[in-house]
Design a protein that fits this description.
By secondary structure, the chain is mainly alpha-helical. The chain has 14 helices and two strands, in the order ααααααβααααααααβ. The chain folds into two domains: about 190 residues, Up-down Bundle (Growth Hormone, Chain: A), CATH 1.20.1250; about 200 residues, MFS general substrate transporter like domains (Growth Hormone, Chain: A, Up-down Bundle). The protein is globular and about 60 Å long.
């Protein structure tokens, strides 16, 4: 449990807040597709269209909501957005058509995107700069643990397969966000940053940071790789048993839960962050090459190859996560943490939205060559991030903003 729960205090409360809503989310993720098709009665294509539109809107709105957290205080903003997310989830219980579903999905995605930015700003205000990457590693470990527990609860609902069971899952997710809001309200308040005389939404004019975000988005294609592309590859291009998909997911979740905090200890600044991401890119290329070898093998040989590739993949994931957290925070001006984190977080949404189309076309259409091209993309993006990070760091030295650091006051 030491990997999950830091010492008593602010960081532990942040972790418990993360744990509360990740359990609900885990249950939601494994049941939502069947709920929307079997209970709400929507066609899968309409669900996909609605969720894509909702997350596209959420990614755009996340930036101004992050700025709102900077200007009016991240704690209050995070609490409000957690409550709003809970309301959005609860509204799915009353949806019986596409338009209401779309409206609820847009509210859900917008609140989730804003909540992520506000929580990052809250963490930046409450945790010392040199401790942030370690704190985020604890949060990531907790996220995986909560998702695993929630997925188990969702699996029970799937086995029962009744309207009441699905309702229970969505009610649990809604309540989990209300509990998250309560825990966040127990944290010290962070003093809002005064308005500065500069362009509104300055992050959109910060070209080095935009390029950093773009390269990080390319690296985040590892997410749909694990959740969608690799399962399709296993079931359609190899003779490995289908249950291996679940086993590899559990392997990934358990490894991140156990080793993410330890991996993050090697990242202490921009230089070590860039080095970690370069190592991540090399491991991603290796993992893609290993996965490519699984086609055309016997079931047991393919299974062994896929397990080896997954072990390499999770190592790359943990290094990339730790490095990107450090870079995303360190390059953000202290007075605009929420705004910049809102923009940096759009990379996750873009990767999840466009990644499935890109990866399925690349891997299912080109086979082993597609794996090698994908690995080359990861390698190129990871090695480009170092020079771009130095460029961004140099522009900040030139501007040398005289903004006061964020502080906090007792609640």
């Amino acid at each position: 449990m030491s990997n999950l729960l830091p010492s008593v205090g602010t960081q532990r409360t942040l972790v418990l807040a993360q744990l509360s809503n990740s359990v609900g989310d885990g249950a939601y993720y494994v049941t939502s597709a069947l709920y929307f098709t079997q209970v709400v009665g929507l066609a899968p294509t309409r669900i996909g269209l609605g969720l894509t539109a909702a997350w596209a809107i959420g990614s755009v709105v996340g930036v101004p909501l992050g700025r709102l957290a900077d200007r009016h205080g991240p704690r209050g903003t995070a609490v409000l957005l957690a409550i709003t997310t809970g309301i959005a989830v609860a509204s799915f219980l009353f949806v019986r058509g596409f338009l209401p579903f779309l409206m609820a999905a847009c509210l859900y995605a917008t609140a989730q995107s804003g909540l992520a930015a506000a929580r990052q700003a809250l963490l930046a205000g409450l945790v010392a700069k040199e401790e942030r990457t370690g704190a985020l590693a604890h949060l990531q470990s907790t996220l995986n643990a909560g998702l695993a527990v929630g997925a188990g609860l969702g699996g029970l609902a799937l086995s029962v397969d009744t309207r009441s069971a699905y309702f229970g899952v969505f009610a649990l997710d809604a309540l989990s966000f209300l509990l998250c809001a309560f825990l966040l309200s127990r944290l010290p308040a962070v003093i809002p940053v005064p308005e500065v005389r500069s362009a509104r939404l300055e992050v959109l004019r910060d070209r080095p940071y935009a390029v950093v975000t773009l390269l990080n988005t390319a690296l985040l294609l590892r997410m749909p790789l694990l959740s969608l592309a690799l399962p399709l590859w296993i079931t359609e291009r190899t003779d490995a048993p289908a249950w291996l998909v679940s086993a590899l997911f559990i392997l990934n979740t358990a490894a991140v839960m156990l080793f993410q905090v330890r991996t993050a200890r090697s990242v202490e600044g921009l230089a070590t962050a860039a080095r970690a991401i370069r190592r991540s890119g090399a491991l991603m290329l290796l993992a893609c090459g290993v996965f490519a070898l699984s086609a055309g093998r016997s079931a047991w040989a393919a299974g062994i190859i896929l397990v080896v590739g997954s072990v390499v993949l999770v190592g790359a994931e943990m290094l990339q996560s730790a490095g990107s957290w450090q870079i995303g925070f360190d390059l953000a001006p202290p007075e605009r943490i929420g705004e910049y984190q809102g923009f940096f977080g759009t990379g996750t949404t873009v990767a999840r939205t466009l990644g499935p189309l890109l990866l399925t076309g690349l891997l299912m259409g080109m086979g082993a060559l597609g794996w090698l091209l994908l690995g080359g993309l990861f390698l190129a993006a990871s090695h480009s991030l170092g020079p771009v990070t130095r460029w961004a760091e140099e522009t900040r030295r030139e501007r040398a903003p005289a903004a006061a650091p964020t502080a906090w006051t007792p609640a």
